[in-house]
Amino acid sequence: MPTKAAAPSSTISSKGQITVPQEIRTRLGLTPGDHVEFVTEGDKTIIRPARQASAAFDKYRGALGTFPGGAKEINAWVREMRDPDDAPPRRGTKPANNRSK
After folding, report:
1. Are the C-beta atoms of residues 74 and 90 closer than 8 Å to each other?
2. Is-contact 28 48, C-beta < 8 A?
3. d(CA 48, CA 41)
4. How far is CA 40 from the centre of its chain?
5. For residue 83, pLDDT beyond 90
6. d(CA 31, CA 53)
7. What does residue 47 show for φ and ψ, rounded to 5 degrees?
8. Measured between alpha carbons, how far is 50 from 37 in angstroms, rounded to an integer?
């Protein structure tokens, strides 16, 4: 019968702090400054990296540059997409053919 290896452990300090063992930090991909969350499932508590859903795309922010014309042009484009017949023509574009409603 194979012997079970001892699980990594840590001691809680007087301030309630623990040191996450290196083996666990490596396995979870944790680096200094990362946040972890504790999830209780029945009589077990799971430690896992705390990942923010909104931060998942932060690394792509600014990859495409800015929208030509800024916020004013973005708003005009959105209005045009919502109702192309009622939107004012965008600068540098030809007016849309007026269709009868």
Report:
1. no
2. yes
3. 13
4. 23
5. no
6. 19
7. -105, 135
8. 5
**Dihedral sign computed on CA atoms, order 58, 60, 66, 68:** negative
Both tokens of 99, joined, read: 């269709």
Q: Which of 20, 32, 39, 30 is nearest to 8 (CA)?
A: 20
Report how far residue 56's alpha carbon sits from residue 54's, in angstroms, rounded to the nearest whole number. Answer: 6
Residue found by looking up tokens 């083996």 in the block: 23
Q: Which amino acid is at 98?
A: N
pLDDT of 40 above 80: yes
| Cα(58)–Cα(95) distance, integer angstroms | 37
Predicted confidence (pLDDT) per residue in 5-34, tens digit? 788 899 999 999 999 999 999 999 999 988
Greater model confidence, 64 or 48: 48
Rounded CA separation 31/34 (Å): 6
